[in-house]
Structures are given as C-alpha cells and as structure tokens.
Amino acid sequence: MEIYLDANATTPVLPQARAAALAAMAEDFGNPSSIHSTGLKARALMDGVRARARRVLGAGSGRLLFLSGATEGIQTAVLSALSALRERAYRRELLLYGATEHKAVPEAIRHWNALLGLHLPVLPIPVGRDGRHDLAWLREHAPRAGLVCTMAANNETGVISDLDGIEAALRDSPALWLVDGVQALGKLPLRLAERRIDYAPFSGHKLYAPKGIGLLYVRDGAPFTPLLAGGGQEGALRSGTENMSGIAALGAVLAALEEGGTFRDAATLAAYRERLAAALQRAFPGLVFNAPPGLCLPTTLNFAVPGLSAKLLLDLFDAAELRVSGGSACSAAKAQPSYVLEAMGLPGWQTASAVRLSFGPVADEAFIDEACARIRVCGESLRESCLDPSAPGQALPADGLTRFVVDGACCYLLADAASRRAVVIDPLPELTGRLAQWLNCQGYALAAVLDTHSHGDHASSAPELLAAVQQPRGDVDGLGWPGGVDVIELGALRLTRLAVPGHTRDSTAYLLHDAAGLRLAFVGDTVMPGALGRSDFEQSAPLDYGASLRRLAQAVGPDALLLPGHDYDDRFASTLAVECAAQPLLADVLAGRLDAAGFAAAKARLEQGLALTEYQTVACGARVDAGCARACSELTLDGLHALLKEQPGLRLVDVREPYEQRLGQAPELGTGLRREAVPLSGLPNALPRWLALPAQTPVVFFCRSGNRSAQAAQALRRLGHEQAWSLSGGLALWPRPSMAADAAFAI
Ligand code: PLP
Questions:
Q1: The last residue of a domain, from among 567, 595, 623
Q2: Pick from 156, 177, 157: nearest CA to 165
C-alpha cells in the first residue's frame, strides 16, 4: 500500500468531503442563483460554508470569494492591487515579493504589471539562511512599496513566515499586502482580520478538499477588480456558476477543522515529524535538513543526502511505495537547483539534490510507523548497493559494466567479481566520491583508470580517484595505461587499446574482449552516437581522422558496439554499420571514397558552420523525432498481453536500478514469462545479447515511470532490433491492490 508523503503538493479527499461532494452532485445539485427551492437549498449550503470559512480563517468583515484555487486567487488579488496602483498619481512604487514565493506570485505580478502598462520595478525580498524574510530590507523598501506579497508558509521547506514582523515592517507603508495562505490552511492560525492583510488566497486540495475549489479573502475596503465578469455570481466579484460540489467538500473539511477530532494538533504533528526525521537520519547517515525544523510547519521536512541525487532518492522511495517529491525540478539531463533553497543561500549540492517529505494533519501513529519502517528499508537497500558511505562492505558483489552520465559526458566502470578488479574509463570529477565509495565498499582494486583522450573541458580526474581509494598511480602513460603491458586483464575479461588520432592527437579506443571474442569498444569522442566526432579543437588531428576510422573498422568490424565518451541523447551505444547508414561522410571515408584531406575539409566545413549547441543537436540526431520515436515504441498493458500471446518468447526487462528492484514489486504476468533485471546503467552489458535474438522476439522494458524504459527501447531499436518496446506509464500505472483513495485514511 502506498504511503503518501507529498501533502504539500496535494492531498487525497477526506471521506466526509467526498460524501458531501457526491450529495451536492446527486441531491442538492441546484444552481445557487436560481430562486426556486432547489436553487435556494444550494445557496443555503454555499452560505453555510462561507460562514464557516469566515470563522475558521478569522475573516471578520472581509469578503470571502469561492474560486478555482490559489492561482486564481493570486491573479485576482494582484490584478486588484495593480489596478488600484494605476489610479494613483505617484507611479514610482515598487512591487515586492518574497524570494521564496510560489511561482504563481511573481509570475502574476509580472504578467499584470506588463498587461496594465504599469512597468513598475519588481523586486524579490531577500530571505536569510533560515528561509525567513529579511525584515530590515523590507523596512527600508516598504515606504516605496505599492504591493508586498509574502507567503504564510513555504511549500518546499515549510518555513513559517514571521507575519507579525512583516506587519511591523509595513507599519508606515502605503503598500497593499498579499499573504499566500495555501500551506497554512488548517495548520496555522492566520487571524486574517486582526492583521492588516489585504488579500489571502487558499486552495482546497492542499487540505483534503478536491482540486478546483479555493478561497480568496479580501479585506473590507481593499481595492477589488474582478478577474471574471459575467453572470454576476459572488456579488459580481467572481462570475461563473459556483463549483457546488467543491464548495460542499470544502465545507466538510472546514467543519472537521472547526469541530476537532479529525486533524492532529501541532504538538502531535511535531512529534510525528521528529520520528520521521530520526528515521531519515538513521537510514541516510550524513543527511542534512535544509531548513531549521523549529521554524517550519510540523508537517514538512526538506533534506539532502551528500552523494545521492534527488532523482535517485525519489526512485528509491517510489520503489518502496513512499511518495515524496524532489525539492528541485529534475530533468533527465540535469537536476535544476531549487530557487527556494538558492534564495536561502544553501550550497549548490543541497539546492540540486533536495527532497521534500510532507504529510497532512490526518496522519496517525500507524501511518508514521509504516513510513519510518519503509524509510529504514530504503536505507538498507542502498547499503546493499554500496551507495551508503557509512556502511562499507555490505553489498552484493557487482559484475560487468556500469555507465554514468554527467551533463552528457559518459564514464564507465568495468568490474569483475571473480578477480575483484575494476577499470574506470573516462573518470569524471563529479563521480570521484561515488566511485571511490563504491570501490571501497566492494573491496575491488583498480586495475587502471583510463582516459580515451585528453579532454578539452576538464583535466583527467584519474589521480583524484586513485588517491581516494589510496592506490598509487604507478607507471602509467598520459591516459592511464600501465607501462610495459599490451593487455589489461580483469578475470576473464581483457582490455586492449588502439590509437585513433583525430578528435585529439592522443585519442585512443579501448577494446573489451571476453572468452568469445570482442565484446565492445570504448571509443571516446571518435564516433559520437549519431555523428562523427569533432576535430576542430586545437589539439585535434583532423588529417588523421579518416585513417583512424578505417583502423577502428578493421579492428572491430561493422557490428561491434561502440560506447561513446558523450551521449547527449540517451543512445547508449552505436555501431559503425548504424553510423554509416546515418552519415554518408563516414561511409565515404570507410569505403575509401574520400582521402584524409578531403574528409578533414568536409568535416571542418560542417563544424565551422555550427555552434557547439547546434553541433550537439546534430550529434544527437533529430531531437524533433524523439517524441514520435518514443510513442512508436510504447506498449500499453493490454498491448503487452496481446504481444505475449503472439510471441511467447517475449523478454520482459526491469530496467530499474538494483536498489529499486530489491524494494519494488515487479508485475505478475503469468508463469513462463522470461524476465530479466538489467538496470539502465548496465544496459550495454545486455545489448549484444538482445541484438542476437531472432528479429521477431519482442524485448519489453519497464521501469517506474516509463522514461528509462523508453530510453532502453529506443536505444535497442536504433541498433536494429525493431521489436523493442517500453511499457508506457511504467509501474506507476500497473494495477495494484488497494490503491483506492480510502487507503490514505485506512493506515
Ligand atoms: N501557493 C503556494 C504556497 C502553493 O504551495 C501552491 C501550490 O503548490 C500555490 C500557491 C498554487 O496553488 P494551486 O495550484 O492550487 O492554484
């Protein structure tokens, strides 16, 4: 059963709120503007909910409008404030917003500031390391401010604003004051009317009401301009027939707040958070919290673990059916740092690897027990994968190739369990700690740390890696190859090298052989998947490029897998046959139709005409095709069953990482199905085997969300196996027992 710890994003709907919404749809379905009895009943319901909201929020004589949610509330408030500022003669006011506000606030300010033609300066109010507003700064700027927007509590960190301090800083200011109350609803007493707050928006779905219903508080006398004009509903302040089922559901939540018994009090919630924090610290030694818990909502924890990306932690937690969220937006290529944590001045690694855990005030002991137990299991799983720096030697022995990608640059770790030796190819400085920890944990010795060439963008990190595992560098050449040997032995595996000058003068390919012969080659930037390597650097040897490619072709043949030094487009590997089909220039060189000088001239023309980013786009192939390619290789669950009937030899491959596979249930699809576990980071190990399958044998990949499996399917297709598929939506869409909304309240 899932443990939902992402309540700051949204919450399930409280059972009594669902019942109220259903009743408003089935029985009391009237339009509150109708004057017949059905309409009057609806109006009475709506008025009752508004009265309750007034009491719960301490709204006094202020106006309370029902609208679609906080984003609409923020738009309405900002439009109202800026329309009023437009009327004022003095036009040099500042528009201020807290640097950690939800994006809806600064975006709304910029939007209406431009649309109303005000073009007033918009400034973020700095926050301190603790996430709280810099009140001295605010005091200084307040006299010139026309609008000040500050949130009551932050959605990422849970940091509670000092509203009394802000109010004092605004004492002599003419500014209108917007307080985003979204994360405070039901968790903090806001006492709206007791403060000089002019506008306060709320969203029902952050506190167990459905999405699509919200509230906006407007102080009695505060300027107001409707965002929606029309039928005159809500006293003509917000036209459009009211969302009665949403209002009824919100009413049930407000009733639960008012009557007590449903939601835990602040002290209980703080004790729950303590337990979760302790469980996290035990599971992930070295973990740091990104905001001082004492200043935060008792339901939010934001943390980072050195050496573990937010994406890794999210995948891990999700496999344990623990739903948390990344404190920073993750894209496939690079984790975007959190602007909230950046504003707080936290170090880069913390802003880029933050994870947020948030629960709602209906949580109870059993829920927290289960959450703590799963956090513990997550920690254990990492230790078994050698990803916990504090627990050396607890892992299962690893074997084969692991691929790491940092901003498009690839690094490979080749491990041999039998001899407990490993080789690293193209080490990246960002990976030194992780690789060293892994090697120490596994107890493997480094047979060599090799570079495929001297890199233009960074010095080799081989010396740091060797130092980190306390191994001497020894007698090696500039690329790390040991003196006096032609072959590096790793148990049954053997590595040889081949000079391929072109991209750089020292470019070298490393050929990996096993008992059956050549398995694959690490070719650095000599042949980027989807394009020729570059040869326009100062240290390039463009005239040698053609001869190098021909030598490589002779050594590896057309179909050997070539593993690149850069992979911007998740191609994983290529072959000369695949590249020749895509690149006439390469085919001409290999067929001897172009001499070295002609080839170099053609390449130079190509490279000079392209900026690096364009070059990368060409190198990655046509990105515009990516969506289509993905769609073409996706299978639904029904599609999988149909394919399985047609092709019983189908392979089903779990491409999640081992620490996830240990935790997550893989789907049941009947007996006799051939299943494999090949983590995406180890995909190159299995590519030759799948490419050798009969052409009609389907290989179906699955993962958590469908992203990694889509990468695997497309990589295999590009290499020529047409029957490569990905399960769309991943395990997230796999039918599982007891995923009903009630589950959230049943634990
Ligand atoms: N303000 C805060 C603090 C929030 O957390 C959110 C939602 O995450 C919003 C505003 C926007 O709310 P909605 O998307 O419900 O309109």
A1: 623
A2: 177
